[in-house]
Amino acid sequence: MTAARPQRLQDYAPLVFPALMLTVFFVVPFGIMVAISFFRRVQGAFYEPDFVFDNYARFLSAFFGQVLGFSLVLATLVALVAVTIAFPFTFLLARLPRRWQVVWLVALLSIVSLSEVIVGFAWSTLFSRTAGVTNILVALGLMSEPMSLSPSFGALLTGLSYHAFPYTVLVLYPALARLDPTLMEAARTLGASPPRAFLTVVVPALRNTILATMIMVFVFALGSYLLPQLLGRPSNWTLSVLITDQAIYQSNLPFAAAMAVFLVLVSLALVGLSLLVGRKEAAQ
Amino acid sequence: MSRLFTRLFMVLVALVLAAPIVVVAGVSFNAQRTLTFPPVGFSLAWFGEVFTDAGWRGALLTSLAIAAGAAALAVAIAFPLAWFLWRWHAPWARVFQALGTAPFILPPVITALGFLSFWATAGFYGAPWTVVISHAIFLVTLPLVTITLGFSSVDRSLTEAAATMGADDRTVLRTVVLPLVTPYLVSGYAFAFVLSLNEYIIAYMVAGFTVETLPIKIFNALRYGYTPTMAAVTVFFVAAAALIFSLVARFGDLPRLLGAWSSKES
Predict the structure, then answer these.
(1) Choices 1.10.3720.10, 3.40.630.30, 3.90.180.10, 3.30.450.20: CATH for B53-225
(2) Which domain holds residue A260?
(3) Labelling A257: which of A265, B12, B156, B210 has CA 20 to 30 A away?
């Protein structure tokens, strides 16, 4: 039986509370933010209603371009690193006995839900001089004395990839857990070695999933705001950091809102693209 | 050979995932107020400080209260919405489903700024309860996804049978459907709870100057130098998340919740 259409007015009752909450506390704030992005900033005060494009015109500065460029490059690198490691990993994970899958999933969920503050603190400890990985290298005789590896671009990339990895696995998991096992079997029967079968059969079969996942991870990495401050140098700050900085410390809400609107458009376009790519594969 | 290689790969991933947590846990046992690893001496004083120091204890209690409230509100929004979408055929109502998913997919800083603009305009900027509502909206995606999945696993012939025997909608929901979707409801609550506990940017933008949650407290403390107390708090976070997700796995089908076929089908 398929569900019937609602007939009486009272059938809509359950929808009232969720619809009200989502409209008042998500749609309205969003609208206010878009409106503020056109407001004029007043020095000393907050801002006043107006309709100017000044806040968007500031995007044309070299500084903004640099931050935007850096954010995009960083997010791309994180997406590449995370998906490259997570894809074969998730493939193997989905083939483990169910009991072991549960253990892995609990661990992955625990890490992905960790605050960026925690991940940043943990990695800066791991990269520190007193408690860091360099102490192991010293103990092995590969280095003469321990050193600090953070803040640096490498530290930031490592921390972000670490945080994005479990997220990537969880995005890939449904597709790989539902992958038809006969696909691999057929390739093996025809004489392909497991790595060869994986590379020439599984990867091409799921290339749209891989692309869609990469976009999701890209958006995830684009949203990081604390790791760049904890593990990177000021030159490694991303658009998210800049938005927070403008909103809280420079009290320039209109400019922050304009940057946020811009980030929304970029993210929505990318998420839309990933849904489109994903749907194409489902239709095949 | 290839079997050995895959084992090695899994072990390597496990090591890298565990490394920062192991080091932080080790650091938290230092006897002195230093961050050295391996730890020098052994002390549980830093764990004690989380509960005895008024600042840390206050932040912990604030975080727990916000997470409990936000997760409950998120479920209260998600449940009727998911039920309506399952019970009735109303394609236009999917708009609200999309609205419930959007905050979670977009970069969180955007949602945070939206809330900041909203609460500042409404004149409630800085009130603790605004964090609860903001978190509930931000995290409503999680219970929405799990509860929707729960409804989709309910066999419709059961509700039909109940209806044939004279039960009205409300009775069917309470006696037949609710017991079946409860595990999904609980996992949705658990996911939202853990993520609210860890959430930083929204809490900070909405009420960062008046309300100190645990992540905000850690970040503020980081500026004045690293102490083993932060390491102890980190261990608490990891342990809490692992415990809650283990419970979800114990009472529900975790692989299915995360998108695999249910264990009976595979």
Answers:
(1) 1.10.3720.10
(2) 54-283
(3) B210
Q: Is A139 on the interface with B (CB under 8 A)?
A: no
Check which CATH number belongs to the domain holding A239 and give it: 1.10.3720.10
Instruction: Choose among B13, B87, B219: nearest Cβ to A89.
Output: B13
Question: Which A residues in the span 38-77 are in contact with B, Cβ-Cβ below 8 Å?
Answer: 46
Domain count, chain A: 1
Report the C-alpha gap between B100 and B119 in whole angstroms: 19
Listed in sequence order, the residues at least 6 apart from B64 whose beta carbon sits closer than 8 Å to its beta carbon are: B197
Q: Could you tell me if residue B40 is left (phi over 0), alpha (psi between -120 and 50 degrees) or otherwise beta?
A: beta
| pLDDT tens track for B80-113 | 999 999 888 888 888 898 888 888 888 888 899 9
Quick: pLDDT tens for A71-107: 989 999 999 999 999 999 999 999 888 889 999 999 9
CA-to-CA dists, residue A45 to A48, A252, A253, B112, angstroms: 9, 10, 11, 21
Mean pLDDT over the full length of chain A: 84
- Residue B71 neighbours by CB under 8 Å, 6+ apart: B136, B139, B143, B189, B190, B192, B193, B196
